[in-house]
Amino acid sequence: MVASERRSYRLGRAPGGVPLLGNALQLFRTPLDYLPGLRHEGDLVRLKIGTSTAYMACTHDVVQEVLHNPRTFDKGGEFIDTMKLLLGDGVGTCPAAKHRRQRRFIQPAFQRDRLDHYCRLMHDEVTALAGSWRPGAVIDAGTEMSRLTTRVTARMMFSADIAADAVTAVQRNFPVVWKGVYRRMVIPLPLLHALPTPANIRFTRALRRLDDVIIRMLDTYRRDTADRDDLLTVLLTARDERGIGLTDTEIHDELMTVLAAGVETPASGLTWAFHLLAENPDVERKLLAEVDAVLGGRPASAADLSALPYTQRVVAEALRLYPPVWFITRRAVTDTRLAGHPVPAGSSIVFSPYALHRDPDVFRDPERFDPDRWLPENACELPRNATITFGGGSRKCLGDVLANQEVTLALASITAAWRLRPLPGHRIRPVAKAELTTGPLPMTTEARS
Ligand code: HEM
């Protein structure tokens, strides 16, 4: 059922637009202050970005209508075109017409039987990371979490013994590439990015090195066809119903997609969780009690997950308040209607998990960090798909279960051994980049006995 069949939905106009720029200043400078307020203007709100028009879906039903009509509201628009520089027609950026095929190829890598293997990788990596810290040191929580999730994702892609160099190369080069792609998304001026500035040279070099790693790994895996528990093996062996496999370019695009989708998002979720624990001592106390009772100081493994329900609620609530993917776009491919209102072909459709998760009509006291809103007896009062942390419909995140496990295991394993304390007087504000980050978050490592 589409939203407009349930009740009538208001079409509004975004406030504060100025000639020529429209609402671009608010959108690019202060999106996290501006977007949540748009729900007061309507369920669907028309925005001007320069000379083009975008429609923001502001309420739950309207967002669901967009997510569940992927052929009408398809991937497209400037952001997606820029992402394609890196991801080509990978599963996350390809149009609906290609999507089912791409998703079928990559889906086996996310099946339950493989998740235990990824949890073992996480166990190894988090043990190594936490073992490298010294009591009383000041670390930047975001940087440390990115290091962790980059290594886990790279090892998920290439598990061969001989792939250690490839994992290191991904760890070195991916952050540079991702930063460069983000710069190209917010400043869509190709000529500027072609200038031989130090940042552009670093970007081109890091991109070339990542491409080289993938070519080298393809070559290695083709020569030695051992059955490996990793993404590259899944992509190399997958066949469609006609027995046709993926081309090298398609494999490249899927590997890059997993890096782009799977590294910084869990790192952001984890970093926010550490910040929120430091700000909410009651929650921290309950979490530490659970972690101590279950783990007794050792790192967590997949078998511990079911015994860590409070930790899982902390993760769900951190991801509600600070969803790493804070802004999502689509493009209307034909003249259509959304929430009962006409939307011309080519219009951008946008929505924000950050704004939607703060809707007081859905979440009581939405700004409050309250893991117990996810207790079954409380969560049953929320509408279905109340949060869109992982999107929805046929383009829902492929790594949703994996990401929840990854963040829960890392949070439990680190808090079993360490308390991360914020530096006195250091204030943070959410920074809306490609992901929603805390910005610099220096924390002192306090060993727990
Ligand atoms: C907390 C961590 C994560 C969050 C918040 C997150 C969020 C999302 C969201 C919102 C989407 C949908 C975007 C849209 O509709 O345009 C998405 C798609 C996707 N995610 Fe995640 N993600 C996370 C972790 C991961 C991980 C760990 C992986 C893989 C290792 C992954 C792989 C993907 C892929 C492949 C897609 C594209 C799916 C498709 O279009 O069919 N994600 N993610």
Automatic annotation (TrEMBL):
InterPro entries: Cyt_P450, Cyt_P450_CS, Cyt_P450_E_grp-I, Cyt_P450_sf, Cytochrome_P450_Monoox. It comes from the Bacteria. Heme binds at residue 397. The keyword Metal-binding applies. One of its GO terms (molecular function) is oxidoreductase activity, acting on paired donors, with incorporation or reduction of molecular oxygen. Gene3D superfamilies: Cytochrome P450. Keywords: Heme, Iron, Metal-binding, Monooxygenase, Oxidoreductase. PROSITE patterns: CYTOCHROME_P450 (PS00086). Its cofactor is heme. Belongs to the cytochrome P450 family. This is Cytochrome P450.
